[in-house]
Fold each of these.
Amino acid sequence: MTNIEIILTIISLIVLIVAGFYAVFKKDLIHAVVATSVISLVLSLMFYLLQAPDVALTEAAIGIALSTIIFIITIRNTKRFEDK
Amino acid sequence: MQAFLTYSIYGTALFLMLLGLYAVLMKKNLIKIVIGLSVADSGLHLLFVAVGYINGGTAPIFSPAVAGTGTVMTDPVPQALVLTAIVIGFGVTAVALALVVRLYRKHNTTNIDEIKNLKW
Amino acid sequence: MKNVIIISLLGVTAYYLLSAFVSIPFGEDFINGVKDFYLNKSPEDLKVANVVTSIVVNFRGFDTLGEVTVLFLASTALGSILYRRRSSHTALNPQRTAPQASTLVQAGAKVIFPFTVLLGAYVFIHGHLTPGGGFQGGAIIATGFLLMLISYRKFFVEHNVLTWIEALAGTSFVVIGLAGLVYADNHNFLENFLPAGELNDLLSGGIIGIIYIAVGFKVGAEITGILDTLLTIKEAGLDPEEN
């Protein structure tokens, strides 16, 4: 890996950890779902850096767009907030 | 540097898997449980692709630029497995969310503690 | 008490998984054998430039057939879980819960939609040359339909048409597999029986092109069906018709 790739990798890993915490512990479910979408976006970048363009394309199409939209449709039809 | 990268990538993958498992085991909200499944999936995919990576390798595609030059290529087998796993994961998420909607229609709640009559 | 048990359980799992991970070297070629077999055989015998595609369709074609079947079952299960008896009024005019999108979104969606479908078709037709394939192309096409579904309240997909596309695509996949039993050299299911062509040509790789076109149509139709089923749920809350 070149230097720029290593720097991008480290930034991506930090964003992954932060977004993971946000997705699991946030009470507002819409925010949590957007955090999972961010996880997918950064994961797609990670796959590209790890020389797996096929997997990156799949994750970009399915993880970012389609998974997020089915979560949001479900939340619209149920409750938005996770109560104690 | 190499050791640090090894530990950080595998550690992040492991962390995401455990975080997802924690959400599945501890959270009361059904949608939160499905989110936990999706996060655990992401960690697993990262782990698989990271295992297949080879230093200095290119993507396993024989484009005219690399054909016949003897370039090292990354392992294509984990990539094919992860490709399958992502699509199946989408199907699992869709069915799980449909079940959540159905339970909400019947019980008017998404909290698993309030759904008491889980008996035949 | 429950928290302590679960956290200690997760800690034990983390310890054993981490001790296993440390022994896996990152960035080294430590799995011998399988990778070299695929990397040598794919461009020489099968003339497929993208090795991941050749693994997914040629070497593990039966697995891919199962994967498409699982997605079909997911779409069917979704329809049957969310099924509710429609009154005669809503059967004629099905309604969406989503509010009307703004004019800007509608105009933009109308422009972007054909290009999205074109991009999806490009991705699955060139699956053996560039990154991509049937699953990615189908998902991109479904994204285009999703854009139209959330922009226009009057845009409905015909479930009969989707069913026919799925049936034709699935049947052609299985028929190509059965033709391999008859015409291919070793008489195996899903074995390549068409001429392989030249590496990096559009018409190369034998049956991969046909199978990926079928998979692209099938995945696109299935995911569009899932999205349409989820989006045409009526009002949330308890339904007096149920039970």
Amino acid sequence: MVNYYYDGTFDGLLTSVYESYYGIEPPDKILRCKNLQQSILDKDIDIVTDSEKASKVYEAIHKKISYDALRNVYHAYLSELDEIDTYIYQYLRFGFKKGKSVDLYLTSEEVLKVHSAAKKVRTESHLMLGLLRFRKLNGGLYYAPYSPVYNITALISDHFVRRLSDQFWIIHDTKRNLAAVYNMVECVLTDLPEELQHQSLNTDDCFEDLWKKYFDSICIKDRINPKLQKRNMPARYWKYLVEKQ
Amino acid sequence: MELQKKLEILSAAAKYDVSCSSSGSNRKNTKGGLGNATSCGICHSWADDGRCISLLKILFSNYCVYDCAYCVNRSSNDVPRAAFTPQEVADLTINFYRRNYIEGLFLSSAVTKNANHTMELLYESIRLLREEYKFNGYIHVKAIPGADLALIEATGKLVDRMSVNIELPSEKGLKLLAPQKEKQAILKPMNFISSKIAEKKDEIKVFKKAPLFVPGGQSTQLIVGATKDHDMNILKLSENLYKKYNLKRVYYSAYVPVSKNPLLPDLKTPPLLREHRLYQADWLLRFYGFSADELLDERNPDFDPQLDPKANWAVNNISLFPVEVNRADYEMLLRVPGIGVRSAKKIIMARKVKSLCFEDLKKLGVVLKRARFFITCKGKYFFNYNMEQLLIRQNLINGWETDEKKQEWEQISILSLIPEKPTLQDKLMSITGEI
């Protein structure tokens, strides 16, 4: 088995695809980090990320397959699911063969895997547009900690740039320590410095209390249905919801 | 009165209005402004009753001059009363919005003093939000029946969605439970709004920057179970509303018993299943190409509680089935139980490159548990038995697997052919002839 290892960036993944065509040997698997258990039958190749090669692949996907395929690949990449990199690779191989009709092969394994991973990412990012909660800190900064299952910070930040364009805010993925910081001019993705990571959130914000009161009084008591509530709003997201504290 | 107390009273008073969606409008943010609308709509939370919270849903005031029997805010009801000021409404909206709690505002009101006065108050709150606070988020407002049309038009220019609630599906019900209201008064603003929306649509074709008028369309609400109306009456009414007034949505609200009145049915729990069936049928009208006449008729004026409307239709029209998945057109695929809009589209796509078998359908998200009775794949029928109406019906209700376990027909053994010895009772019966 030939394994490619890349650094976990999207460019790295695209470089791996490039190498699979022009390098020494096409891989059986593409992986993000080294397996601790190595088999003597495996041949490991480290891929050095090269932005030029990556952009060639990027352009090729756009032109030879479709823009949708590019979107699917990027979203599937953000899912960080097991083996997804290998499936993306197979999807692209298949795609370069079939052209833009690749997304019609809804029943073939490699297409199905990439589509379902991409869909999971899109579903969660849409849900998060609603479930993200900004806490107003004493300095007037709006700070939104959350821990999504998939790496969606880059996907959702644009929405808030458009929407909350006249306030300073930070969206902080506490699981990956990745933050989108907005200063009313531009939004940057970065990791938060240590001292900012442990914000004391005990602000006495009266609107948080008002929101909790509203949340309770809008419910019709004759129709209580916790199962439906949990189906729509999985409990794993409750940790950062003001109304569920 | 404290703001918190007001919010509690006036949100509790608004909760029986089920409309919550924030879709249909894609109002852009302005320079230096706050907020925008997303055309697909966004839910921000789900209350303990499982219903989504998308908008800050409040009444401006619950001091009402009307005394409608079904309504919690009727003037004769002994509930705490309160009224916001436009400033308070704006403050709440803006601050909730900045924390991403809500998608916008849903503002309704009880009729205080008279319709015009109420509509003016609503207009003023929304004007304040849009003009002073430069708020571009979603706003849904109620048009108060009886208010001046000029006032309704001015409000319509500022909001994303407007609605007039019909509440009671028939004029008879209206006379009985809300004698102060008239059907014509309710339909008049609806008619006005829909004609204005159509007008604006034409205008936008010519001038791209023509000012908006209710870009999210209008909606209404019908109460289910407070009157004796059949499902058929309700569904036909909705069908008409969709056709005639081009409504975006009709909401159905299971009647929650809020008062003891001899004119009202004595319900222990709200008729949630009935509400659910109506929503299913409503979807069939809007997205599946069904008409109300196909789903219900004079002989069956109510939905079957055991079977969803689409499956019920399919069983009653079994002669149209089975359909071949690889050849059927989109409209027919949509009519197969277990195939929805999404999976029908996927089938159309996938069969362009490959003829589909049952395994493939599972991957496309078809619910084979229901669909298998009605389809063939490459000419093969999946269900092992005859296409018999009753058998399929039973299987749809109980599920095939469970049925197999408690099989009703047993293996015939030689012993079962020997008749049982007649009991004493049998002998007596044979003498007296009484069964």
Amino acid sequence: MILDLIQNSFDGLAMGASYALLAVGFTLVFGVLRRVNLSYGPAIMFGCYAATWVSFSFHSNIFLLLGIAVLGSVLAGTYVERLCFAPHHKGSAIAAMVASFALWMQFEEVVTLVMPKHLYDFPPMFDAEPLAIGPLSLRAEALVMLACALAICFALHRMLYRSRFGLALRAVTDAPVAAQLAGINVPRVLLLVFLLASAIGGLAGWLIVSTHTQVTPMLGMWSTLKGLLAMMIGGLGSLPGAVIGGLALGVLEAHSQWFLGPQARDLIAYLLLFVLLAWRPRWMTTSHG
Amino acid sequence: MGVLTNIGLISFVALSAYLLILAGEMSFGQQGFFGVGAYTAGVATAMYGVPLPIAALMAMGAGAAAAFLVGLPTLRLRGLYFAMATLAAAEMLRIVFELIHFQREIDGEPVGPDGTQGFRGIRWVFENGVEREGYLAMVWGLLFVVVILFLIVERSKLGATLRMLGEDPELARMLGIHVERFKLGVVATAGALAALGGALYAHHNTYIEPRNFDIMLGVHSLAYALIGGLGTVFGPLLGVLIDIGALEGSRVFHGYRMIVFGGLVAVLLIFRPRGLLDERVVHWLKRRLA
Amino acid sequence: MTALLEVRDLVTAYGKIEALKGVNLDVQQGSITCLLGPNGAGKTTLMMTIAGILRPRIGSIRFAGEEIAGRPPHAIVAGGAALVPENRLVFPNMTVLDNLHAGAYQRKDDFASDIERLFTRFPRLKERSTQLAGTLSGGEQQMLAVARALMSRPKLLLMDEPSLGLAPLVVEEIFRIITQLHQDGVSIFLVEQNAHMALKVAQHFYLMEQGKVTFSGTPGALAEDEVIRRAYLGSARA
């Protein structure tokens, strides 16, 4: 029983690390734009499909595939930003969101046209057996996932507080008009944030598909939903919150799946979100939303 | 024929999303109430032999009640918070549909919702000799009634209150409108409307499964209202017509439908962020017609 | 003197409503020019249009001989005009120091000495340099907004009602700073409701009403105009 709890918590943290990365990407965009990008997950899916296609057609070196996944996500993200967000900076949030949904439909159809099967194999990160530590088994992929999440958070934090771009990003988040008056090229910052979020998303996508060793078109919706969920649980618009929200969601899901099954897992995750929203504890409201 | 019926059916959800947009709320969850309506009416007719008209009323009641329960704790939420709360609620409903195994033996066959296996044999329409044309007429007749009701409301003081609530809730509050109670009423009405669509949908398809009621339907209904336009009740209908009618109905873009539709929508929204039939166009049309 | 800023026939509209209906005015190099006018006259719209936040519908804005109408705000800051906006608009969740760094965003050169100089000018900001700007008092935030604008080393400082909502002592302090900046060679275009204070510092006045300039003249001419004196100077003699 105790062992189960430990094992589940560890598996949950590993899964949660990927949620955290997804949520970080979401939060970066939401923080500066105050807009929801429904196409966030589908753009990641596009990148992962591009990597899958390369692995079937040419080569399946894992670093090559990682590069393709990130590049594909960034390309798709640029397309989304140019078409759905750049034209709506001052305009309607709901129009931007619905436009991003429209592109979601495009991404799904493009990948299913090129690769029509419902499921494709994706090369795993390693061929290694899970490490056994006493009665617990630790998958190496899980360790990589956690390490990547930590590294990205650390790098982001440094970028935010040590670099010129980080300063601009914080300024735009804090007071967009003041940022313009301070001489910051706001549309360019917004585009760069979008690209950064897409790149992090691409990394998260690659981690997820190479851990699961398969790709399906559902990855798009799944990534958007998990990213949104983790971001909302962590309190809208705060990066540390997104990380905590992602990890918490992962651990909660792991336990509820183990004890109650997969449907209960999703039910509990949504119930938690609903209760948090209705109850609105302070950490969810104080972050500027 | 099937396409026409589908346009009618989906229009109910699109209108329920539109009603909430008018009141200033964006819901990602109308598909949940559509599902509640479908399951309620299906259980009533297929398992207990209730006639469809009564079952449809029961569905509307259930949809309104479910929406009321969702609305009550989320009344103070706005914008993305409300959208996410409704999404969470609808996803919970969908998972509940997956968990329901509730069947009765009828003529030696088990009938009723069977979790992810879905709910087969909702055959009231066939068993009662309603032709496909007749059913189509019924769907569009009901839709016509709903549209007329919308038009009446939009011209009345109630409609003005609704739009004011959407544009400036603080102003509405200062003018003495009980904002929370009013919003709850709108949420419940929209739930009933979606549920009516669901009841009709279940009896058109004779088979429903939890997957029918996922977030895709919800975001589509929002998109329909926004593409068609927020200026008039005909906006959402136009949105449904463009998507299901022109693109799915015609075989021209077979295989590329979503690429074409998605691109069109994104470009359209750049130039018309409140849809084709937005308030300005509607105002202009009214002046021309008057 | 040559005109540093020339505004000609400027029209800015919100939808169908024109807030500026053909504005003409000049700010001379090395001057303090003050714009008076009632609320809703379009003063803030004019400032936001010059700063590039709002796009004019028609008209021209020439700054240091170059046409800047319709340029993006960051290009205008780079060109040497910085706006201290109405209600200050600091970055509330960033430290005082970061606010100043953000003000120097355009600059590629070393600006550490600028910060030192500003800290000598605004000692309160130095004391609070690691505090979040949102925790400062209104007067301190105003000082910060001015200091942030100065970080870009502007030739022209646009100030939109810097005394709004501040205590009289703080207002005097602000005007003392305006005079100092002027002595240092910065041209200043000031929107002000507090005509008494403005009369002490400005060399030229404009009055704007309902989107149009309705008066242009020296402080002397302003004080002699009966209507303006009643509306803006009360019963007191200038």
